[in-house]
Write a structure and sequence with these properties.
Helices cover about 20% and strands about 15% of the residues. It is a single-pass membrane protein. This is Type VII secretion-associated serine protease mycosin.
Length: about 400
């Protein structure tokens, strides 16, 4: 899902939906289900900031700027695809809207008590459409159309005020390999001061193959954990893991104005992007390198030895990172130095590639499989409604990865 030279698709739908009764003390019970906010100590961070003044670019399938939980927060964006599903169609902006809600949802209704609360509810969302939903009828067309959407989107976001760039997408197929244009775009964004966050991949049960853009130098790559802090079985384990965040049974918003529970390192990346927005709001002069360092040094539940491929440095803790940031002095951005192996922080795409599964880059293969970093909706609808929602068999197959006949 990184540029049309690869398979840029994403699955976000729902299967076997059932309704959940409202919880006492909440307008509709949705916010009562958001366990991740407490796990990340987000409300503690809100005592300092809720992300005001920060813009988070969401490079995804588009964002529904009319969703009540995002009303007034979505900036005019960019569509780098130009075809596919449009507003009002079921295959439009589902994944991107879910990610935007995790990052910056502000709820709605009386005192914002209904709907989804994001990690940084005062942050702005800058939508950049670079991929199609997996259920989009034009998905096959994307395979043979112009390339470079992701690289162009990263540069566009960096040039249009993004403080944080969220990449809840990736390619971890057998033919996945680093793209020079994407790598250069990431470094361009970092030099301009934008923090780049990406999902580590959902290949934990399928070979743990390297995923791009997560493996590019300087990217904050995020693995997923459940509500007990354990690595999600699907979460990819690789050297580039930076931190972890919730990615199981996560509450998400949808353009259909319903709410679902989903899973994936996509969601985990969005939680970290929201966390970065809080840190940047509190410490706007810190560099991407410094913010990355804050997140790793202050992560909670650190694995033995301080780091692992499963969890990175541990579970992100924006409140602790904000406090630790008080002691830092801003540093200048590192200049580009193409000849230097240490021009950026973090290991490069060539670091032990293939050591885990024996697969290396295949530059001849242009059509890669879905990275598995898509947020996949699980079995529960959290929306107040009149009854279960029936979902076509084809849509269910896209969620589960099953093949249809």
């Amino acid at each position: 899902m990184t540029g049309f030279g690869r398979r840029l698709v994403v699955a976000l739908a729902a299967a076997g939906l059932t309704l959940v009764p409202a919880a006492p003390g909440y307008a509709d019970g949705i916010q009562a289900q958001e366990w991740a906010l407490d796990t990340l100590h987000v409300r503690e961070a809100w005592q300092t900031t809720k992300g005001s003044g920060i813009t988070v670019a969401v490079l995804d399938t588009g964002v529904d700027d009319g969703h009540p939980d995002l009303a007034g927060q979505v900036e005019p964006g960019k569509d780098l695809i130009g075809f596919g599903a449009r507003r009002g169609e079921r295959a439009w902006a589902r994944h991107g809207t879910a990610m935007a809600g995790i990052i910056a949802g502000h709820g709605h209704g009386a005192s914002g008590g209904e709907g989804v609360l994001g990690v940084a509810p005062k942050a702005r969302i800058l939508p950049v459409r670079v991929i199609l939903e997996d259920s989009d009828p034009d998905r096959k067309k994307a395979r043979s159309t112009r390339g470079g959407a992701l690289a162009a989107g990263i540069r566009w976001a960096a040039d249009h005020g993004a403080d944080v760039i969220n990449l809840s997408l990736g390619d971890d197929s057998a033919s996945a390999h680093p793209e020079a244009a994407e790598d250069a775009a990431v470094q361009y964004a970092l030099r301009k001061g934008a923090v780049v966050v990406a999902s580590a991949g959902n290949g934990g049960e399928k070979g743990d193959r390297v995923s791009y853009p997560a493996a590019y130098p300087g990217v904050i790559a995020v693995t997923a954990v459940d509500r007990y802090g354990s690595r999600a079985a699907f979460s990819t384990r690789r050297w580039y893991a930076t931190v972890s965040a919730p990615g199981v049974d996560v509450v998400i918003a949808d353009p259909d104005k319903r709410y679902y529970e989903g899973w994936g390192t996509s969601a985990a990346a969005a939680f970290v992007s929201g966390s970065v927005a809080l840190v940047r709001a509190a410490h706007p002069d810190l560099s991407p390198r410094q913010i990355r360092g804050l997140l790793t040094r202050t992560a909670q539940d650190a694995p033995e030895g301080g780091r692992s491929d499963d969890l990175g440095a541990g579970l992100v803790n924006p409140a602790a990172a904000i406090t630790a940031g008080d002691k830092l002095k801003p540093e200048a951005q590192r200049p580009a130095a193409a000849a230097s192996p240490n021009r950026y922080f973090g290991d490069g795409p060539g670091h032990t590639q293939g050591a885990h599964d024996g697969s290396g880059p295949n530059r001849m293969a242009l059509l890669a499989g879905l990275a598995g970093t898509a947020l996949v909706v699980a079995a529960v609808s959290l929306w107040r409604g009149s009854g279960p929602l029936r979902v076509p068999r084809r849509l269910r197959a896209l969620l589960t990865g099953a093949r249809t006949r």
